[in-house]
Amino acid sequence: MPPPADIVKVAIEWPGAYPKLMEIDQKKPLSAIIKEVCDGWSLANHEYFALQHADSSNFYITEKNRNEIKNGTILRLTTSPAQNAQQLHERIQSSSMDAKLEALKDLASLSRDVTFAQEFINLDGISLLTQMVESGTERYQKLQKIMKPCFGDMLSFTLTAFVELMDHGIVSWDTFSVAFIKKIASFVNKSAIDTSILQRSLAILESMVLNSHDLYQKVAQEITIGQLIPHLQGTDQEIQTYTIAVINALFLKAPDERRQEMANILAQKQLRSIILTHVIRAQRAINNEMAHQLYVLQVLTFNLLEDRMMTKMDPQDAQRDIIFELRRIAFDAESEPNNSSGSMEKRKSMYTRDYKKLGFINHVNPAMDFTQTPPGMLALDNMLYFAKHHQDAYIRIVLENSSREDKHECPFGRSSIELTKMLCEILKVGELPSETCNDFHPMFFTHDRSFEEFFCICIQLLNKTWKEMRATSEDFNKVMQVVKEQVMRALTTKPSSLDQFKSKLQNLSYTEILKIRQSERMNQEDFQSRPILELKEKIQPEILELIKQQRLNRLVEGTCFRKLNARRRQDKFWYCRLSPNHKVLHYGDLEESPQGEVPHDSLQDKLPVADIKAVVTGKDCPHMKEKGALKQNKEVLELAFSILYDSNCQLNFIAPDKHEYCIWTDGLNALLGKDMMSDLTRNDLDTLLSMEIKLRLLDLENIQIPDAPPPIPKEPSNYDFVYDCN
């Protein structure tokens, strides 16, 4: 007979005593359980004690999290959070440097636990730490020659504890003084400072900027881009990551009118080329965190284009001169007519003819073509850049098309406007960066005007594809679809430079796109006859079983997930895997992203599959209903899922990408006996069914399969040919 669901078997340790094996009744108050444990070891004043996990987390057991205790968990009897907080509050004010250092080390470790953090904060512990940072720095500077390691460690532990305590979101960031901000900024501005101090200082500045508008203004006054640049030129990727995170935070929170000014400063300081040299092309792999920060910087840089993208052209605006300039460069303005009485009409007629050759929709007043947003004035900016910086290519395209028949002409003006709009959609110009995306493109860090250069490559591609398709004006939308496919396929290969991107596009000619489409179409349309559909129906269950086994095998391998919080810099990792017998989910926290297989003994927590009540996704997940920055993020919502078990208990996930999300939701649904409904399952089913059908029909190549089965022959007139075995 299985034990009652409310009884949990655990081991409890106490220093200097043998561990106790004990059954905990989850219905009993936690204070009663602690009293029972204390009585067993003859310890008085049970209210001064608490239970905590004996693993590396050392988290306290509370009424809120006690349901996370599983059979076989090892707990430790220890002093209560309130007592511990009081003792540490006194110890960190000790006059003995060694005692103070040890106390700060313990505080940095314990502050990760929200229960302890709450007690320490209640004692006004945050104010004490800020005072220590403000006042202790002078002493640190005076004594650093004598006791540099000791004071460096002390400051590092102080800042670590501060970061961990603030991470819980209990105290508002708006409460800090200018003096404290100046001190933290001074650590970042120093040329030679301990790595751990620099790390924590950058993390604090990032959080200040992201969490408070007032602090953003104060930090922006203390920190300049020039002071941050040297940290990018080092070899420590973690410091580089924190530095780019601070730049991103300043960029993100800057008022609209300040962003372009800040972008100009970044260009002056050659931030792009420094990142390209010391980060992207450094002789080491880029980790996920750095990839995310580079992606954020890429998005924020492209978002500077949003203002021009959403600006309509005023037909009476002085910027009409840009259109005149486009015409002048293309046709080198034949000799201007004299100001005779008929010259104005002659000039209008000539301009109208030239604007038609340039491919504008409105030949009389091309400014009207730029009243649609997006792309607005951004399209005109791109056209002028192309005309000035790639003049030969521009003139060639315009003259080539103006010499063709009207119906075969590729309209440069209309193409440029639609292409700019398409590129803005591909790069999601104007959208906020995702919390989880790492999709940065190295080629955009190789040029100061990367978007304009991107456009120049793509407009030449469009003209080439138009010729290859022998398109007419009616085929305009078809050409744009092909160009979009070419660009998207080339971007997925993550070219390292714009030249490499250009060569990828050379290999993706219209003929090649047709082959790819034909291959994909064959997979979808080849087997639509009734006999084939019946065969598909027959073999589909075994294909689904194959997919199910693959999903479960992937769950057995396990996946590393992130614990996202308000300050992404201190992300924690945790790992979850299914047991080989498919009966238990093992999970636990990790210090860092695993490089190889995660040992079984490092995953202390268990969840029996039999206890799972449901799997929910997206907005239905408990952690997506909570207030916070992630709530509004569409991409995070699309990667979120939760396992609901017991009463009001859940295990919350945010998948690293869409593929892992599909693998896990499919696998969990398969464990619960439900259908696998993900897009990945549909794609896998189509692919595997198509392959299986092709294999089974190999012997029938070039044989016409009839739509109806052959007729059953008439019965024979006699059965004399039948052999009687009796």
Automatic annotation (TrEMBL):
Protein's organism: Jaculus jaculus (Lesser Egyptian jerboa)
Main localization of the protein described in the UniProt heading: cytoplasm
Regions that span the bilayer: none
Record key words, sorted: Apoptosis, Cytoplasm, Membrane, Phagocytosis, Phosphoprotein, SH3-binding
Example GO BP: actin filament organization
GO CC terms in record: cytoplasm; glutamatergic synapse; guanyl-nucleotide exchange factor complex; plasma membrane; postsynapse
Role played: Involved in cytoskeletal rearrangements required for phagocytosis of apoptotic cells and cell motility. Acts in association with DOCK1 and CRK. Was initially proposed to be required in complex with DOCK1 to activate Rac Rho small GTPases. May enhance the guanine nucleotide exchange factor (GEF) activity of DOCK1.
Single GO MF annotation: guanyl-nucleotide exchange factor activity
CDD domains documented for this protein: PH_ELMO1_CED-12
Domain ELMO span(s) in chain numbering: 318-491
Gene name of the record: Elmo1
UniProt superkingdom: Eukaryota
Compartmental location: Cytoplasm; Membrane
Keyword Cytoplasm listed: yes
Name of the protein this chain belongs to: Engulfment and cell motility 1
InterPro entries, alphabetized: ARM-like (IPR011989), ARM-type_fold (IPR016024), ELMO_ARM (IPR024574), ELMO_dom (IPR006816), ELMO_domain-containing (IPR050868), PH-like_dom_sf (IPR011993), PH_domain (IPR001849)
Short name of one Pfam family: ELMO_ARM
